[in-house]
Amino acid sequence: MLILFHVSVCRGSSEGFVKHGSFDDQYNIYRNRYSNCSYVDGNLELTSLEGSYDLGFLKDIEEVDGYVFIVNVYSNYLNLTNLRIIRGKSLFSHKGEGYSVYIALNHNPYQDSQGILELQFVNLREIMTGKVFFQGNNLMCFADTIEWRDLNKDLALNITVNVDHYVRQCKSCFKLFS
C-alpha cells in the first residue's frame, strides 16, 4: 500500500527585527508567506504586528527547519496548534547564545489586553537543538506548563524566562479542568 503525504513548503526568513512598511504591510507579507504552509524551509519569524491581527494562517505549520522568532506581536493567539517539530538547523543569535525559540516583548505596554495569551504549542513534540528564550510576555500563560525536557533532554538547563513587573494572573491548569 502506497501512502502519499502532501507537504506544502514555504520559505522562511532571516530578517530578525526588520519591519517592512506599516504594520498592515508586515501582516500581509507574513500571511502571503505562511498561508497553507505545513513545512517552513528556514525560520518562522513574526515581528512588528502591533495590533490584533488574525494569525489563523499559521494553523497548518507542522515543522520549522530553523528557529521560531516571535517579537512585538500583539495578537492574543499564535495559532501554531499543529507545530510538531522545531529542527533548529539555524539558530537566532542573541548575546552570543543560539536560540531555536525566541519569544519576547509580545504585549502592548499601552493596552493591557493586547498581547499573546498562550503559546498553544499543543502538538509540539521535539526541539532538536538550541536554547529557548522568553522575555516581556506579560500576558502569556502556561509557558511554565510545557515539559521542555520531554521536547529535548538538554533544554531543561537552557531555558531563559525573564518577566517584567506586571504579569497577568493565570488560572492554573488544574482549575481549568475541575
SS strand fraction? 15-25%
| Basic shape | globular
Largest sheet: 6 strands, mixed
Structural class: alpha/beta
Radius of gyration: 16 Å
The overall pLDDT, averaged over residues, is 84
Helix content: 10-25%
User: Any idea of the CATH class?
Assistant: Alpha Beta
Low confidence ranges: 173-178
Please give a structural write-up.
The protein is built from 3 helices and 11 strands. It is of the alpha/beta class and 178 residues long. The relative contact order is 0.13. The chain has one domain: 24 nucleotide stem-loop, u2 snrnp hairpin iv. U2 a', Chain A (Alpha-Beta Horseshoe). The strands form 2 sheets. Strands 3, 5, 7, 8, 10 and 11 form a 6-stranded mixed sheet that branches. Strands 1-2-4-6-9 form a 5-stranded parallel sheet, with no helix packed on it. The C terminus is likely disordered.
Q: Short description, anyone?
A:
The chain has a single domain (20-169), classed as Alpha-Beta Horseshoe (24 nucleotide stem-loop, u2 snrnp hairpin iv. U2 a', Chain A).
SSE layout and pairing:
Blueprint: E1 9-11, H1 23-34, E2 39-41, E3 44-49, E4 63-64, E5 68-73, E6 85-86, E7 92-94, E8 97-104, E9 126-127, E10 131-135, H2 148-151, E11 159-162, H3 173-177
Parallel strand pairs: 1-2, 2-4, 3-5, 4-6, 5-8, 6-9, 8-10, 10-11
Antiparallel strand pairs: 7-8
